Amino acid sequence: MQKLSLSQTLGQKLSPQQIQFIKLLQVPTAELDTRVEEELELNPALEEGREEPEAQTEESDFEDDYDSADELSVEDYLGDEDFSGYKMQGDGNYNDDDDKEIPVAMQATLNDQLESQLGYLGLDEHQGIVAKQLIGSIETDGYIRRELDAIVNDLAFAQGVETDVEELEELLLQIQQFDPPGIGARNLQECLRIQIMRKLEQFEDDVVLQTALSIIDFCFDEFTRKHYDKIVRKLNIEDDELLKDAVAAIVRLNPKPGGISGGIVKTQYLIPDFMLTNNNGKLDLSLNSRNAPELRVSQSYTDMFSAYDKSDKKDKKLKETVSFVKQKLDAAKWFIDAIKQRQNTLLRTMEAIVKYQYDFFLEGDETKLRPMILKDIAGEIQMDISTVSRVANSKSVQTDFGIFPLKYFFSEGISTASGEDVSSREVKNVLADLISKEDKKKPLSDDKLEKSLKAKGYNIARRTVAKYREQLNIPVARLRKEL
User: Fold this and answer.
1) What is the Cα Rg of the chain in Å?
2) What does the domain layout of the chain look like in residue ranges?
3) How far is Cα 87 from Cα 214, in angstroms, rounded to an integer?
4) DSSP-assigned letters across all residues of 11-76
């Protein structure tokens, strides 16, 4: 049996303005220009430039003929929009360089480099097609991971070319002689072997290279696990220095011979959102001027809306036109307000961070960083934690000591033996220092690192040591072992 009932619940729903603001807040300075350009293309009522202060008109009055919920004052879209309410880096110093396109660096793709070397093989038309298919199957790191029998099928179905795995193997061996060394390998072991063999072609009698080849061919699993004692027994190596040199020769090889390749590579520029300078002990904070685009509501659209007062208010088509114009004017005003609110939120958040980490910003000493979490800043500026998180995750600040992402300044607190709280970043620095000074023949386990940290006054659990070690991209003790 079905029953109907009524219930009351509380919920929150974001307005279009709030959604607009949240999206804009997450946009870094480097991408803000693009976002503004998109809005200018979508909304003809939005224009670039400052509003003229004398451009004032009388308030429209048509309550009797227009729904009161849609009332609009023309003055809402007029007047001098004051964008100078915040100190902006570069205000008043316009630089034509800001309008220049980002330089584009051109370079040949990995595919192009390899195909250019095909000419030296003297292949016939059939072999050339097969070889190009193989090259096309090489991924950006330099490896072929697609099975050769699958490439045979690709050639048959896509190009109508008949071949077999044996022919592919022969051509692949030739491609593997191309530069960069190690290209076209199907796994890491083959990649390293190709590179060692290339060296042995030059130095046939090099005992170190011969030992390195034996390690790759017969003890690769032991090598990756750093079980050097097993390698010694398996290969009957009596000279410890020989083993050490052979391992060093392998480690110096390139595990990703393809590198990072692409057709057109845009040069990346890190554009800070804030500028912080130390002027004789006084910290001056400013927003990057690119955070304050000059925008205004279109005068022609305001005039169209104003003209409604002097027209026949019963004209249905005119009402539809005015409704469209009002929608565009609303959107333009909302966007301008969201940009200004973005500036205000960014500045308030960064001011709170500077205040909290003042000692660090004076000297750039990492040990001066205080434990600070999102909640601390959110409470300081009376905003939601999610708002602070959006700012911290996508913004950076230029200081006298370099450019830092804002999330760099956030870290949890660790209690010391004396009862003080220190930043987890400080503990990570001490941990990294301990590992850098350890005996590499007997690396410190996480348990021993925990005891060493406690001896220095840091109360930290072993699992936290492991977490910090992983965050520092430091492997476990077994993989840090050296000869």
Assistant:
1) 33
2) 15-89+273-410, 110-251, 413-480
3) 66
4) -----HHHHHHHHHHHS-HHHHHHHHHHHHHH-TTEEESPPPTT---PPP--TTTS-GGG---GGG
Residue 55: exposed, middle, or buried by beta-carbon count in 10 A (0-12, 13-18, 19+)?
middle
- Side-chain-side CA neighbours of 33 within 13 Å: the count stands at 11
Contacts of 108 (CB under 8 A, 6+ apart): 116
Question: Does the N-terminal peptide bond of residue 405 adopt cis geometry, omega within 30 degrees of 0?
Answer: no
According to DSSP H, which parts of 255-398 are helical? 299-306, 316-356, 358-363, 374-381, 385-394
Instruction: Describe the crossing of helices 446-455 and 462-471 by its angle, rounded to 10 degrees.
Output: 100
Report the SS3 class of residue 306: helix
Helix (H) / strand (E) element for 398: namely: strand 396-399
Q: Which residues contact 155 (CB under 8 A, 6 or more apart)?
A: 129, 130, 133, 161, 162, 163
Q: Which of 49-63, 88-102, 222-236, 414-428 has the lowest mean pLDDT?
A: 88-102
Helix (H) or strand (E) holding 210: helix 207-218
Whether residue 449 has pLDDT greater than 70: yes
Residue-wise pLDDT tens digits, 304-336: 777 765 666 566 777 777 778 788 888 888 888
CATH 1.10.10.60 applies to domain 413-480: yes
d(CA 116, CA 113): 5
- Tens of pLDDT, residue by residue over 134-172, are 999 998 889 999 999 999 998 888 888 899 999 999 999
Q: Is the dihedral of CA 357, 360, 364, 369 positive or negative?
A: negative
Q: pTM of the full predicted structure?
A: 0.51
CA–CA distances in Å: residue 404 to residues 337, 392, 397: 28, 11, 5
- Which pLDDT score is estimated for 311? 64
The string of pLDDT tens digits covering residues 31-54 is 888 888 888 888 888 888 776 554
92 pLDDT above the threshold of 50: no
